[in-house]
Amino acid sequence: MVATTGSRTALPRTYWTWLGGTTLSLLGVQTMAFAMAWVAAGQGGRFAALVISAIVLPRVLLLLVGGAVADRFGAWTVMVVSDAVMIVVMLVLAVAVWWSADPRLPLLLAALAIGIVDAFYLPSTGSMPRRLVPAAGLARAMSARNLAGQLALFAGPAAGSLVLVAAGLAGAALANATTFALLLAVLVALRPYAVDGHDGGVPEPAQPVWRAALDGLRVAASDAVLRPALLLIGVAAGFLLPVTGLLVPLLAQERTWPPQTAGAIVAALALGTASVAVLVLVRGALADPHRAAVASLLVAAVGVAALGAASTPAGAIAAGLLAGLGSGGFATHVGPLVLAATPATHLSRVQAVLVLVQNLPLVLTTNALGSLAEATRAATVLYGCAAVLATAALAALAPSALGARTRADRAEKAAVANGNT
Questions:
Q1: Which one of 135, 222, 333, 359 is least enclosed by Cβ atoms within 10 Å?
Q2: Strand, helix or coil for residue 285
Q3: What class does CATH assign to 12-193?
Q4: Is the pTM of this model over 0.90?
Q5: Are 415 and 330 in contact (CB under 8 A)?
Q6: CA 50 remoteness from chain centre
């Protein structure tokens, strides 16, 4: 029998309440994202790219600052202020596009505001499972959160298209403002639970925000658990995430498969990822998160290689399912490992580093992998991605990494003990 952990740990009602409000807000965000992308695309490719850049650039530049602010003033406070600001931004955007025949300036300013708010909001919301859930239930809590995100990604674009047809961009903005208002009400209701025993830790001495922001990088880079875990996450972000959005469509075109086949492969990958998340939510995570994450990354590498070797649609779909199972196993074990190993004083700052680690490699490798696929073949690039993933996973099993795993076990046991006292 495979040992699991946290399978009998009931998640607090406060967490489910927060997750319900967050899921609704995510649905509104994805609805709005589709509406903004559609309207921006109608103004030309350059303007559409400019809108995306207006969101991504401030988000990346200010993430570390956002994490430092959240650790200093509290994640709850930052989320409340962020939600309130987004309500105002969406209402102003709705009025602006309603009265103006040219949506370009309102869209661009709204995108800039979204990017700035995201930089402060994402580190705070990423730390909430640790703040609301005992250590033994972290894996189940994060699996539920991952499922909520997948649901929003699946339903948001469809909802966005319906709202856009029925009420235009102004209607989408008002709908998004409504979901932010509902989440704000949930956060206000959770105020008594915003600071509890799970936050823990001793307050840090006051220091400049820029120094506190850099301190998050220092902790992530020097900690024997966080450093290898974040490196693995960076490798997965750079060489596993592009498979879905970039390499599968290119492979399908090379093999002269119809678009439906490419969609089925992507759906199989998503199904594998979601299946593992459901399993962890119901049964709990494996007892050794380090080895489970590494083994899952190896499974994903095998799936990616099999995808490159597949000569039939059925084989490619099966390979996509295998890659999804590996991806889901990796995400459901490495995420709780990072949260459990993070010092209580640096929860939001390390989450900010995590978001950076997930986004920067993806930006860098997507362009490079696309160019390589054009110069060679998509299958060759898939083999290369599989090799990088497998090499990283095997390196994580090296003797030098075993000490980090042992320390992670000690940190998790200590956190569980503190949560039970």
A1: 222
A2: strand
A3: mainly alpha
A4: no
A5: no
A6: 23
pLDDT tens per residue across span 201-245: 445 556 777 788 888 889 998 888 899 999 999 999 999 999 988
Query: Coil, helix or strand for 101?
Result: coil
- Residues 6 or more apart whose CB falls under 8 angstroms from that of 366 comprise 242, 245, 246
- Closest alpha carbon to 194 in 416, 323, 17, 409: 17
Domain with CATH 1.20.1250.20 in the chain: 12-193, 209-419
Q: How confident is the model at residue 46 (pLDDT cuts 50, 70, 90)?
A: confident
**CA 87 vs CA 28, 34, 57, 92, 394: distances in Å:** 12, 18, 22, 9, 47
Confirm if 325 and 295 have CB atoms less than 8 A apart.
no
Sign of CA dihedral 171, 83, 128, 245: positive
Nearby residues of 412 by Cβ (< 8 Å), 6 or more positions away: 135, 289, 337, 340, 341
Can you identify the CATH homologous superfamily of domain 209-419?
Answer: MFS general substrate transporter like domains (1.20.1250.20)
SS3 308: helix
Query: Is the C-alpha dihedral spanning 11, 16, 18, 20 positive or negative?
Result: positive
Closest-CA residue to 362 (of 226, 245, 225, 214) = 245
Identify the helix (H) or strand (E) that includes residue 4. strand 4-5
Report the distance separating Cα 244 and Cα 236, nearest Å: 12
Radius of gyration of the chain, Cα coordinates, nearest whole angstrom: 21
Asked if 82 and 28 touch (Cβ cutoff 8 Å), the reply is no
Our CA dihedral for 303, 304, 306, 307, rounded to 10 degrees, sits at 120
- Report which secondary-structure segment, H or E, holds 5: strand 4-5
